[in-house]
Amino acid sequence: MTPLLDAAAAIAADITELRHAIHREPEIGLDLPRTQRKVLGALDGLPLEITCGQELSSVTAVLRGGRPGPTVLLRGDMDALPVTEATGLSFASAIDGAMHACGHDLHTAMLAGAARLLSDRRADLAGNVIFMFQPGEEGLGGAEIMIREGVLEAAGERPIAAYGLHVTSDRQATGEFTTIPGPMMAAADVLKVTVRGRGGHASRPHASADPIPAACEMVTALQTMVTRRFDVFDPVVITVGSFHAGTVNNVIPDEAIFHATARSFSDDARRRLEEESAQLVRNIAAGYGLTADVRWEPGYPVTVNDAGEAAFASACSLALFGSQRTAALEHPVPGAEDFSYVLREVPGAFIFLGACPAGTNPDGAPSNHSARAVFDDEVIADGMTLLSELALRRLAAEGR
Ligand SMILES: [Zn+2]
Ligand SMILES: [Zn+2]
User: Fold this and answer.
1) pLDDT (tens digit, 9 = 90+) per residue, 8-63?
2) What's the CA-to-centroid distance between 256 and ligand 2, angstroms?
3) Measured in angstroms, how far is the CA atom of residue 237 from the centroid of ligand 1?
4) What pTM did the predictor assign?
5) Cα–Cα–Cα angle for 376, 305, 300, nearest 5°?
6) DSSP bridge pairs for 252
């Protein structure tokens, strides 16, 4: 059997073409019919059991190995972002207002590539592989919907491990794989506050109940709360990204509204952040004779890697690509990821793959979600090799 790296090199051109086709026609959200069609086309003819989603255009493919053994899951997300591409690439998005700015086009293509590589090695495979092609990562929780629709039971038994790759267009050297045991990405919730007062003439504020100064104090008090109430080694972030009140200079409005993103890295900090931010905001309002409506909208949970699986993923990367291209992630990152829902159910690891264009400095390169974010095709072969190796080795290690 050809070594995995050579086999990946042999199909890299095809998989890159698939990536370009997906990139040219980006789709946003849970319903990605054209992307789904491309995935189904790429899997056509492989010995897979394929099912498509009900509530979303997901694709679940199961490969049953030639030898008995447990099941592992590999995941790739498929959705694009509402961004107008400004990269100037030859295969840039042909759809105005939609772009694969987070590199999910590479994830989808690499997962299809891994399905091909592993199908060719079916006889050696000691167990089953679930390929999870997932729409709606960007804010819509597609992973949670796929879990509800049974992706974890697709092979007839729960996977013993799950892995996902994410490319980065900045921060990391091209071709470098990184991961970390424990929390890797943040929980991302939304705090929505409406401060209610009583409007009136701005020249006589004592005759009204002005919500604006109180709302301003809440914004700064929330920042103080972050440093005075939370452990610096279990950090949280609150950013008020929108703040609206009033219409003209001489009218005190009835209300002031602000929204904040709230990030945390443990379930405990997350729960406290919800409770204590609401308490703080309500009490500041009360101090001024106002009231505050506080809404907490839960987003994705913390992405937590299993320590053993993260070490295993690093060992696979080390064996394939050496120490120059395998590193421990320095610290968790405060972005959020809905692979977290899978990792709550199944031990596993999420892995970053540096994909900024070779020769450019990753520090200062346009980041994921930028209209100018560029992800290098060169990482595709190695990404699908790592995914395949994770499945092969994990199943071999179990050796029922
Ligand atoms: Zn993203
Ligand atoms: Zn992403």
Assistant:
1) 999 999 999 999 999 999 999 999 999 999 999 999 999 999 999 999 999 999 99
2) 33
3) 18
4) 0.95
5) 80
6) 200
Q: Exposed, middle or buried, 184 (CB in 10 Å: 0-12/13-18/19+)?
A: buried
140 in Cβ contact with 30 (< 8 Å): yes
* pLDDT tens digits, one per residue of 151-195: 999 999 999 999 999 999 999 999 999 999 999 999 999 999 999
Beta pairing, strands 67-77 & 126-134: parallel
Percentage of the chain beyond pLDDT 70 is: 99
* Three-point CA angle 254, 257, 260, nearest 5°: 165
CB-proximal residues (5 Å) to ion ligand 1: 102
DSSP state at residue 358: T
Q: What is the DSSP string of 369-396?
A: TSTT----GGGHHHHHHHHHHHHHHHHH
Question: CA–CA separation, 153 vs 156, rounded Å?
Answer: 5
How many angstroms from the chain centroid is the CA of residue 322?
26
- The ligand minimizing its distance to the Cα of 101 is 1
For residue 73, what are the β-bridge partners?
130, 162
How many CB atoms are located within 10 Å of the residue 228 CB? Answer: 8
Q: Is the pLDDT of residue 257 over 60?
A: yes
Q: What is the pLDDT of residue 2?
A: 76
